[in-house]
């Protein structure tokens, strides 16, 4: 049977706020359960880190401007597949 693939990015917060309020396991579990409910299965989960120098510099700048409280962080890339009729 043919399969349909979907790549889903789960973003996490960085900084002190992210450290105190973000639960990576729950974020993964909630998103996986949501897509499982519509028929998708997880194929692979990969850690997503910023490799672009400009984006990394912007993240550091935001972190400095917020006195270490907030920046956007990495997260996960989750690859799903679903059999289609």
Q: What order do the helices and strands come in, and which of them pair?
A:
Elements: E1 3-14, H1 15-21, H2 24-36, E2 41-48, H3 53-65, E3 71-83
Antiparallel strand pairs: 1-3, 2-3
Task: Describe the overall structure.
The chain has one domain. The model has no long low-confidence stretch (mean pLDDT 91). The protein is of the alpha+beta class and 85 residues long. The chain has a 3-stranded antiparallel sheet with strand order 1-3-2. The protein has 3 helices and 3 strands, in the order E-H-H-E-H-E. The chain is elongated. The longest helix has 13 residues, at 24-36.
Strand and helix order: EHHEHE
Largest sheet: 3 strands, antiparallel
Name the structural class.
alpha+beta
| N/C terminus separation | 7 Å
Strand content: 35-45%
Q: Give the % helix.
A: 25-40%
Instruction: List unreliable stretches of 5+ residues.
Output: none
Number of domains: 1
Whole-number mean pLDDT: 91
- As laid out across the biggest beta sheet, the strand order is 1-3-2
The count of DSSP E runs of length 2 or more, i.e. the number of strands, is 3
> Radius of gyration, Cα only, in angstroms?
16 Å
Report the principal-axis shape.
elongated
What's the total helix number?
Answer: 3
Task: Kindly summarize this structure in a few lines.
The protein is of the alpha+beta class and 85 residues long.
Properties at a glance:
85 residues; alpha+beta; 3-stranded antiparallel β-sheet; 3 strands; 39% helix; 39% strand; elongated
């Amino acid at each position: 049977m043919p399969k349909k693939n979907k790549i889903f990015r789960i973003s996490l917060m960085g900084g002190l706020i992210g450290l105190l309020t973000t639960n990576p396991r729950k974020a993964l579990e909630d998103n996986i359960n949501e897509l499982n409910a519509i028929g998708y299965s997880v194929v692979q989960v990969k850690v997503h880190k910023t490799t672009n120098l400009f984006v990394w510099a912007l993240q550091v700048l935001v972190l400095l401007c917020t006195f270490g409280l907030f920046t956007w962080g990495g997260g996960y890339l989750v690859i799903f597949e679903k059999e289609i009729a």
